[in-house]
Amino acid sequence: MKTVAVVVGSVREGSLNQQLGRALAKLAAGKLAFRFLKIDDLPMYNDDLWKNPPEAVTRFKRELEAADAALLLTPEYNRSTSPLLKNAIDWGSRPYGKSSWMHKPTAIAGASPGAIGTAAGQAHVRTAASAAGALLMSQPELYFSARPGLIDADDAITDEGTRKFLQGYVDALAAHIDRLVR
Ligand code: FNR
Predict the structure, then answer these.
(1) What is the distance in A from the centroid of ligand 1 to the CA of 77?
(2) What residue numbers bound the domain in which 161 lies?
(3) Which of 21, 30, 34, 95 has its CA at 20 to 30 Å from residue 173's CA atom?
(4) Which residues form the signal peptide (predicted)?
C-alpha cells in the first residue's frame, strides 16, 4: 500500500487540522497508509545547523523521503500558513539540491472555523511546497470550514455530503499518487 506522510501545521490539543487529518486517514483506510510526521521538535530554521544537523531534522527528512506522497494540512494564521508548517517545509527543502520534497506527489488542504476554510493560507503553502519541488495535486481543492460536530469523536464525518466530498478527495489523492509513483 502507498504511504502518505501527513504534515500538520498545528499540534495544539483539539486542533481542527489534526482532526481533519485523522478523518481523512480513516476514509483512506485500505487504500493509503497515512503516517503523521512529528514536526514540533524541529528547531527554527537556521542554515548553520547543517554543520551538525539535529536528529529531529534528519529524522523528518528520512521519514518524508520514505513516504510515497505527502499531505500538508495547514491552519490559516493571518491569511497565511503557520510558522510550524513553513518551518517543516523549509527544513525538508534543504540542503540545496537535496530537497526531500523533490518530485513528491503532494496534496494541500486545511481547516478553519472561518468561511473560506484556509483558502488564503493554502495559497502560501502551495507556493512554498512547489518551490521545494513537490508535485502538487491541483484539483480537487479542500477548504474545510469546520463547525462543531461535523467530525465526531471517532473521527467520522457526520454529514453525508461532506463525507462524500472528502472521500472523493482521498480517492483523487490516491489517483494522483498512482499517476506519479510506480
Ligand atoms: C488564527 N485564525 C484564523 N482563521 C482564519 O480563518 N483566518 C485567519 O487569518 C486566522 N488568523 C489566525 C491567526 C492566529 C495567530 C491564530 C492563532 C489563529 C483562527 C484559526 O483558524 C483557528 O485558531 C484554527 O482552529 C487553527 O487551526 P487548528 O489549530 O485548530 O488546527
Answers:
(1) 5
(2) 3-180
(3) 95
(4) none
Give the total number of structural domains in the chain.
1
Query: In angstroms, what is the span from residue 53 Cα to ligand 1's centroid?
Result: 31
- Ligand 1 atom closest to 19 (CA): 31
92 CA distance to ligand 1 middle (Å):
24
Distances (CA, A) of 28 to 48, 96, 97, 166: 39, 33, 32, 10
Task: Give the cell for residue 177.
Answer: 499518487
CA 155 – CA 132 distance, rounded (Å) = 31
CATH of the domain at 7: 3.40.50.360
User: How long, in residues, is the chain?
Assistant: 182
Q: What confidence tens digit (pLDDT) does each residue in 22-61 have? A: 999 999 999 999 999 999 999 999 999 999 999 999 999 9
